[in-house]
Amino acid sequence: MASPAAPMTPRGRLLTALARGVPDRLPVTTHHVMPSFLERDLGGADADAFFARFGLDPIRWVAAYRPDATKGQYFAEPDPAAPPRVAAPDCRIRIETSRQAAARTVRLRYETPQKTLTMRIEEDAHTGWITERLVREKTDVDVLAEHLPVLLCDVEAVNRQADTFGERGLVRGMVPGFDPYGQPGCWQDAAQLFGIEALILATFEDPAWVHHFLRVLCERKKATLRSMRGARFDLVELGGGDASTTVISPALFETFVQPYDTELIALAREVGQRIVYHTCGGMMPILEAIADMGPAAMETFTPPAMGGDADLAAAKRRIGHRVCLIGGFDQVHHFRGCTPATTRAAVRRCFAAAGGGGGFILAPSDHFFEADLELLEAFADEARRCVYA
Amino acid sequence: MNDILQRIATAVERGKTDRDAPYPPDLRGEEGAAELTARALQQGIPPERVLADALVQGMQAVGDRFERGQAFLPDLLIAARAMTAAMAHLRPAFESGAVQHRGTFVVGTVAGDLHDIGKRIVAMVMEGNGWKVVDLGINVPAARFLEAIPGQDRCVVGLSALLTTTMPAMENTVRTIKAQHPEVPVFVGGAPVTAEFGARIGADGYFPNPQGLVRHLGRRGV
Q: What is the pTM of this model?
């Protein structure tokens, strides 16, 4: 594809790269923009203002779900700090929150006719994490499957956001199987619900149960995906870092991750959604296996200095003709504590490694929580100078 | 190597915990690390020899493959679990003083960080290499390390962090320990941590995998 003469809109630029085409210049964006960063460093600006301030190609994350009225579902009592949770006649949800110092604790009780499942989440200014897993006994998976509501997409709400956002950038979503703390990929969701160490050991001790668990999550995600037909997401996230090879082996990936997420990607294509497969961590031993699943794009290409293993140039050679590459930038070492020239040089290295022929979107490899503003400016400015002659 | 010691090493390397363990499938129904260790002790093989010539060898083998990219974290995890099952039979010998620990390894994930798996594997590998392990768990404030260190013989500290946001807590923990116990070596690890970062915060070393730490301590003669 020839490089177009006129500047593209941010959305056009990003979509061109997602289609493995050559945009007017290197698209440059971020993954999530963390609220704590916006609050501390940008005076509470919102994500739109952040993208505008630095001249990055914007992304808007949209999560909009609706109760299934035909099943008597309804929104549970609101948690002011979280999206509304969907309850059902056979699954009442009770939410308790408490705060100690900077941390907030959310206790959830899912009351079903079979059993009450509980889960505890803690959050600080930066992020949240699970301190009590929902699935603690193997039979809890059957309670989850039988009673806990599947999230359905609120297509109209998504499309209102897409209309508002227009050509300003990409609308991103994900495929949760569960609320709260739903994760995109089946394995990733299972790891959060049961604990990654317990899940890995279960693959050795009771692989049939792990497959049952993953099948339950996969079918729930399929229902969510089917409800996304007509929703104008530009990119929908699947996967998760617990499926990376810094956590599991390629053999476990091929046995417990690939079969389920492949089904989801095929269904996503059927309902008109474009998938990015997210693997924050080791990717190089499973690059082709991920590409074989059929996503439009892969992220995060975390470099070795950040605990990943990405060799961007090698990845581009191996799978660049099959998927768009997103990420690759070392935000830990080049968003803080270095000179703008160093940051600019890091941008150029990424462009040289993966930018050739298009199909590459530069982004930090996953979230960043802290950044020197002048380095963010250098990152964005240098990327904008990376043009396709 | 004695046949039973070789079999223990193989059981550890392949993650065969005990007879009931279904993994690995080709060893189903056979004795695992636990039964073999018990039998080796019954045969009169000294506990320190079981440790050095069987358990350490098994973990070393899987650790070497991990370093070469031929084994992955689940392989380490299941091998370490098999080794822990075997260690249960050696522990009385350590507790009675018949066998000396190489020292005490105080380990924890730093404050604000709840990641457990990497730290647990390091702890298990260190125990399998003859160290007494004091695992303080996750989300450990610096003060708890200070409480844990006094009275420990040949104490070495290991700190883990998996989040960039908790790296400052790692720095604070290193500096707090060093201020009160400058003689205690402090080692750091975790996905976002680097050797450069470790040096900057005053740690005595950074290791990307447990075998690196074991080797380093071996070179120091510990």
A: 0.90
